[in-house]
Amino acid sequence: MRRVTLRDVAAEAGVSPATASRALQGSALVSEETLTQVREAARRLDYHPNAAAQSLRSARTGTIGVIVPDIRNPFFAEIAHGAERAAREHGLSTLLTNAEDDPVQQRQYIDLLASRRIDGLLLAPQGATADATLLRRTGLPVVFVDRVLDGFEAPSVTSDNEGGILRAVETLAAHGHTRIGYLSGPLSTSTGLQRHHAFLTARERLGLNADPSLIGFGNFQERSGDAIATQMLQEGHPTALLASDSLMTLGALRAMRRLRLRAGRDLAMIGYDDFETFELTTPPITCVIQQPERMGQLGIDLLWSLLCGTTPESIQLPVTFVSRESVCDAPHTHLREELS
Amino acid sequence: MRRVTLRDVAAEAGVSPATASRALQGSALVSEETLTQVREAARRLDYHPNAAAQSLRSARTGTIGVIVPDIRNPFFAEIAHGAERAAREHGLSTLLTNAEDDPVQQRQYIDLLASRRIDGLLLAPQGATADATLLRRTGLPVVFVDRVLDGFEAPSVTSDNEGGILRAVETLAAHGHTRIGYLSGPLSTSTGLQRHHAFLTARERLGLNADPSLIGFGNFQERSGDAIATQMLQEGHPTALLASDSLMTLGALRAMRRLRLRAGRDLAMIGYDDFETFELTTPPITCVIQQPERMGQLGIDLLWSLLCGTTPESIQLPVTFVSRESVCDAPHTHLREELS
DNA sequence: TTGTAAGCGTTATCAC
DNA sequence: GTGATAACGCTTACAA
């Protein structure tokens, strides 16, 4: 089954390939009549232009690469979705890849996408400065989304990590909690780092207990949230738990269930990022909500500006604090009340 | 910033472009010495081969197109993830696109991917026979995953929809339910159609109530599940609810919450597909579980066979029934017991 | 083992 | 308005 080429279309329409090309691109320099003839011919032959030849010639692909660390994490699925929508509105298509939280895979995908001559890259990065060098050498226009990479200057769409954590810790403190267990993400990500830092700052400012067993480091995956919560609940004696992403929140909830501890009664719990069912668990989970779909969309908009030659400003989106029912008072607060 | 081409690498290594090309492909016909020299040169210059030129010349792209109806549905995110993993193992990369439950977008993506000269297509299709024609005309090797398209013969990886629904209905019937409300997916999808048919068959075989108000049609999205459940619970008087995918299950749970009905006590509930938190809701939700990641992986394996020239057999995966706590006895069962 | 050269399908630059 | 024609960067006969 030989492929239909522009030559075939041109022959069918009785014009030269050059004219056919112009017609299909909607160039103004072609007569109304030949235009319709060429279009008709293309339709009849079911012509699909060869994108490889097009981009070889024009040095543009009309494709944006998107690299997320974990497509199964709903947060990043939303980002990908928002990005794809926005890209389509600009007439661009997206090449979505999933680095699976693996810096090596991330590097491979950067190489792959560079080979594919994407017009730009939307990246939720992980890893170290080595990757900044790699990234720089590709010469690609880059926009960061959610996370940024040290040592590489690029416009970014991030979210108010400090504000989100601060708000959560303040809320817990207001309920009398002083022993707050924090399930941190990896410090190798900018979000993990910022949130961790914000937690330390908030904790100090509010004079809360700084027992080191009240911080556990995970990898933003459910399993690590489970493991950290399990250990912490048995050894750190927290009266409240704060997780730094939705999957770790999920893991913590699973651990609590196993230990027969109920959020909102035996223990206060605040999650980061929403999850479809956090509203339907018992109790519904109080959490800090970001705007992942919007982040993806804005990321593409910034990239578009970049492609158009302007240097856009980075954007930091605000977070929302959604108070549901998983935050109870600290036990000693009850005591205090009973005594008074 | 001019791009580095094979010529540059060849010049740097002091050989011809042909030799450089051969060396970089690891051809056996090149001496050990020039091989390392070319590789070194490529590394030094940070050479990224131009995929457009490669595939223009070789008529292969090493890329598989994947079209899913809704990437935000965790079921399809898992499929995409499984597909990507498997593709990478075959040395292929994936171009993931999201049709957003829109046949028009699906068509656009088929065109787009055909233009990109993907080597094959993994498709979870929707829509009518018109799309079968379109698909056929692309001449692409296609494998269906999860769903199939009427009028287009292709290997597929599906799941035992009849078995899953049958098992769910039998379970409810065994608990004394005769008025089972069914939240159907769209009959324009093969899964929606098969499950609906299986529900009718099971219901008839078990002699259950066939009140038409006990079936509602949705679109596999949360909102439709909510709407259908809301109406059905107020007008159909079901004692049990069976939803046909996870998002509609979610919607039903939301509706029940609003109406202050609790699954496993006021009403039996069975979901289709698992959802991260169905285990953590109150009560945990009984459901039929599929194997989406495995479906994606097997889909790519079939496609690979297809690309290698063999015609693989279609695969139907079994489902698992996970009994949790959302299925209670029907009210009249209690009555009967009390009377006896 | 290596080099030369043709050509993949398209678009851009010329002329006409 | 339209048609030759040259290039884009690479692979692969074929020749050396």
Could you explain the architecture of this structure?
The structure is a homodimer of 340-residue chains. With 340 residues, chain A is an alpha/beta fold. Chain A has three domains: 6-54, 434 Repressor (Amino-terminal Domain), CATH 1.10.260.40; 58-157 and 292-315, Response regulator (Rossmann fold, 3-Layer(aba) Sandwich); 161-290 and 322-339, Rossmann fold (3-Layer(aba) Sandwich). Chain A contains 13 helices and twelve strands. In chain A, the strands form two sheets. Chain A has a six-stranded parallel beta sheet, with helices on both faces. The first copy, chain A, has a six-stranded mixed beta sheet with strand order 7-6-8-9-10-12, sandwiched between helices. In chain A, helix 9 (190-205) links the parallel strand 6 (180-184) and strand 7. In chain A, helix 10 packs across helix 11. The first copy, chain A, is elongated. The termini of chain A are far apart. At the A-B interface, helix 4, helix 5, strand 2, helix 6 and helix 11 of A face helix 4, helix 5, strand 2, helix 6 and helix 11 of B. Chain A binds a DNA duplex (16 and 16 nucleotides) through helix 2 and helix 4.
Give a short overview:
Two copies of one chain form a homodimer. The first copy, chain A, has 340 residues and is of the alpha/beta class.
Layout of SSEs?
The structure is a homodimer of 340-residue chains.
Chain A: H1 6-13, H2 17-24, H3 32-45, H4 51-58, E1 63-68, H5 74-89, E2 93-98, H6 103-115, E3 120-123, H7 129-138, E4 142-145, E5 156-159, H8 161-174, E6 180-184, H9 190-205, E7 215-217, H10 222-235, E8 240-243, H11 246-258, E9 268-272, E10 286-289, H12 292-307, E11 315-317, E12 320-322, H13 331-339
Parallel strand pairs in A: 1-2, 1-3, 3-4, 4-5, 5-11, 6-7, 6-8, 8-9, 9-10
Antiparallel strand pairs in A: 10-12
Helix pairs in contact in A: 1-2, 1-3, 2-3, 5-12, 6-7, 8-9, 10-11
Chain A binds a DNA duplex (16 and 16 nucleotides) through helix 2 and helix 4.
